[in-house]
Each structure stands twice: as structure tokens, then as C-alpha cells.
Amino acid sequence: MSKHKFQTEVSQLLHLIIHSLYSHKEIFLRELISNSSDALDRLKYLTLTDDTFKSLEFTAQININFNENDKTLTISDSGIGMNKDDLKDNLGTIARSGTKNFVEMQTGDSKKDSNLIGQFGVGFYSSYMVADKVEVISKKAGEDSAYKWTSDGKSGYKIEDAEKDTFGTDIILHLNEEGEKYLSRWEIQNIVKKYSNHIPFPIYLHWEEIITKAEGEKKTEKREDKTEQINAGSAFWKKSKGSLKEKDYNQFYQSIAVDYEDPILYIHTQAEGTLDYTTLFYVPKNAPFDLFNPDFQPGVKLYVKRVFITDNDKELMPTYLRFIRGVIDSEDLPLNVSREILQKNRVLAKIKNNSVKKILAELLKYSEDKKKYTDFIDKFGIPIKEGLYQDHDNRDNLLELVRFKSTTEDGYVSLAEYAGRMKSDQKNIYYITGDNEATLKNSPLLEMYTEKEIEVLIMDQDIDEFVIPTINKYKDHDLKSVNFSDATDELKTDTDKKEETNIKPLLKKMKKVLGEQVKDVTASSRLKNSPSCIVADSNDPTAKMQELMRAMGQPGQQDIKPILEINPSHAIILKLKNMKKSKSFDNISQLLLDQAVLLEGAKLKNPTDFVDRLNTILTESL
To answer: How far apart are alpha carbons 516 and 529 in whole angstroms?
Structure first.
């Protein structure tokens, strides 16, 4: 017998589960059954693909027994089983996500928090919500030795040799006072039907029933062992769509996604013909906790002929649809398909392409309800924008799905809505990028567009800087950023061109003062109220993009200079036009650049110089 201490994270987690999630205990059974199902999946796959296991006599099932006298509840499976090392690795550590992330996700709502258990891969430990001691007796398929793992869920655990006739795992819970309510046939049945009805293996409940017989006035009692399958035990996605109700779909979703909410959308496809496959996809109501984690957990499981293959392959869905949950079941793939083969398999590639088109088509229908779709965009708008960059084949549909804020409308607007409101003589769709909506809506860059009542899309997410410039067009309209110097070319009037000519001497003097800080100083036709603004040359990245590139460690961005535009009709510029070259002229020219940089949301290279210069000008004006 060997004794071990728990990994630090396990000890912290056990304390958290026992003391914080105690009010929602029944999910322990869901988690243990799910683990048993995984073990059966693994062994079933091996018996079909690995010569070592093909001769193994294997009957896939899960058994639940309870003993009211001993106050024990036992969940047994005939799955792959565990040896000594497996018990130590799987039950003494947390395989995937640590307690720190688990704690950070706590909401204070016990129902929501208890559902996080499955998402973080720590479902086994939920046993300690209802048990003072847990024993795990397991024998790995293909091996001769069995082992027993025992722990009270406090400081550590012990592993010792055991006797077990068959491979698989028995989990024996020694229930505490709070857990005694689960020593009931009806309680167990209700929990299984609620959470695990769609597990694709039969779940049998065993209990002892007292049969009373009356012979005249004499009554005799006889105890009989009873067994009953208490789940549907079939591949849910293979059932005909006509036989299923929305409630059925929602229950299955909650069982595979470990979610307490119903999905907002489900998409069930059963294809026959050149390809024979079934898919069932769900769009969750809330974003997965790891949506923006590079090491996100894929949400789609792959089956071949109802045999589980993998749930850890990111190739099953494009990255931008990583929030999708569901199942792909193919009749055409080989059972022993490897991950490397999956990445190049034409059958799977075709199923994936068809599935993506179907998902996007259903999302387009869903977007017709603006209120519901707004909530979807709040949760998944950024991944959908990623698709514009990643998925050129489906770009047209994705362009209909993305949403943006606007200078003229509240909430989100689509490109189609913008195009439908364009003025008859307007050729381009205008947009502005930057840090946040409030700053952008007050940007000097918008003054001309506001005066001319031209709508501008507000793009205040970092991803917009990377994605939108790659689109170029929406139907017949070019997408044009007002952050660039050429954005106003088509809107210039003869008066603008005349003022530009009149102010050329001032532009030349200011350019000499500012030197290498700017690429050029030009007259602005876009400014109506502000004296100055900065824009990017049409061939250069914007100030925001340069900041993002520097944050990503991209070299060479510091050398890109902005263009300073000044308003020929502004009072400051008119006075500056008549000033002779002097220290005051230099300070004002520099301040016009500095304030334009600040309004763009960029940082000043030397704030101290800015303050000194401003104080000098203030002193001179008093």
C-alpha cells in the first residue's frame, strides 16, 4: 500500500466544492456517469481498431447499486479501467484546468458554479459533496492486476492491491448525512433522466424490492433483486428529427456541453447520398470560459458509425466557430482514423464545409430577430469577425452576420442596413477605427461627415484594425477608413481646393517646425470645428494599428509618421497664418500636433514638454 498527498490544487478544489457548492449536490452523479461513459467510449474504440483488444469480450454498460444499510452508492462501468499509474495521475492531480481558473469563474450562484465543475475537468471530485469517503476499484483492460484508491477528500489518498474479476471501474461512495437522500431508486432515476438520459450506453439501476404475499391471514415477505435500464441508451443524434421535441434537444445539449442554460439555436442535419453523415450543432447562450484562450477546448465530438473517435480535434470546426457545441457522426470514415489523417481527409473536409455553410445560414435566419441577435453579437461578435479574415469561401455570408456601431444609430447595424441608408450620390461605406466608441464619436475626423449627414461605422474593437482593411468591398461599395488621408478626396469642394492653395505658405512653415515628427502638413477639408487632426497616409497603418503592432512585438513601427491636417477656416489657424516665425509660432504648431495625437487616442512621446509648452502659451495669453 502506498500513501500520497494531493496536488495542492486538488486540496484547494476539494475545500471549495465541499463548502461552496454544497447546495447543488445532485450533479455528482452526472459527472461520475459521464466519466464512465468516456471509459466505455475509449474501450469500444480499441476493440474495433486495435488487434490487441479485438478478441476482448466487451459488453458496454454502466451499473448503479445502492445499499441503505451500509449507506453506500456504487457506480460501475465495464470500460477501459485504470492501473496504478492511471489512478495516481487521474485522481491525484487535475489534468487540465487548475483551481485558480475555477475560482476566478465563480459567480456566487451555486447552480451556475456547480456546472463549472464539468467544464474544468474535475467532475470526479464532486463526489465529496455527498461522501465522507470514496473508494475506486479498477482493473485496466488487457492487464491482470487490480488496484484500490481510497481517500476521505482531505489531505491525501492511498493506493493498494485489490481483487476484481473483470476490467472496468467501480466507484464506491460512502455517503455522508447530506448524501443519504440518494439511497433511493426514484431519486437516482430522476437524476439520470434529467442529466444522463442520452448517454449512448445502457445505465442499469439495481435495487432490492420487498414482495409481500398474503396466504389467508398469513403474510410473507420475500426480497427480490431488481434491475432496470433507466436511460434511453441510444445515439440521440441518430433519432429522426420528427420524433424529437425542443425539450429533448435542450436536455441533450446540457448533457454534452455541461451547461445550465438552454442553447439559443440547434441545427440537426441528417445527410444521405454521396456522403452519409449526421450532425447536431448547438449555439450556446453564453460564451465558453475559454473562448479567447489559444488553448481552448473544442466543443464538437467526432463519431464514426456511432463510435466515439475524439472530442479534442480543433480541425472539426474552423477556429472562428469554436463556440459551437455538438456532434459529427460519419458513416464513411474508417474507425481507426488518426488525427493526422483527419486533417487531410476529404470526407471530413466536405462534411466540415457543408456544416459551416449550414451553421452560417441558420445564423442568418436568427439575425432577423434584431433583439436576440444583439445578445449573440455581444457574446460572439469578435469570433464572427475573425471569420472574415480566415474563411474567404464564406465571406459573403459572414459580411451579412457582422455588426458595428454607428454615428447615426443606437445599438448595432449591419452593412446591409448602412448600404440601404446611403445617400444617392454616396459611393463608399465610411468607417472609423480606434480605442472606444465615446472617443471615436467625438473625433475631429468625423466633422465633415456629420455636417454632410453621412453615416460612419464605429469600429472600436482591436480586431477591426486587422480584419476590415482586408475586406475592401461590400457588394458594390468600397469600405473607406476616415482615418486615412485620402478618405475625403471625393467629397472635396472647389472652396476646399481654393483654401488649400491659399494656406500653402503656412503649411510649409509648420512642416519645417515639426520636421521628422510628421510625414506632411496639409489643409483639411474634413475639419469644421477643430483646428487640427492627424491621419495616416493611405499606404501606412493607422496610429491605433501601430500601437497594436508594437504591443505584439513587431519591429519597425516607430518610424511611421502621421500626416497633420489643419483647418484653414479655424480662428487659431487664421491667426497663425499671419504670425511671423517665432518661438510662439513653434509652440502653437507643436501644440496643434500634440492635441491631434491625444484626440486620436495615441500617447505623447514627451508629456512633460507638452505641459511646459502649454503653460508658456497660457502665460503669454494672460
So the answer is: 27
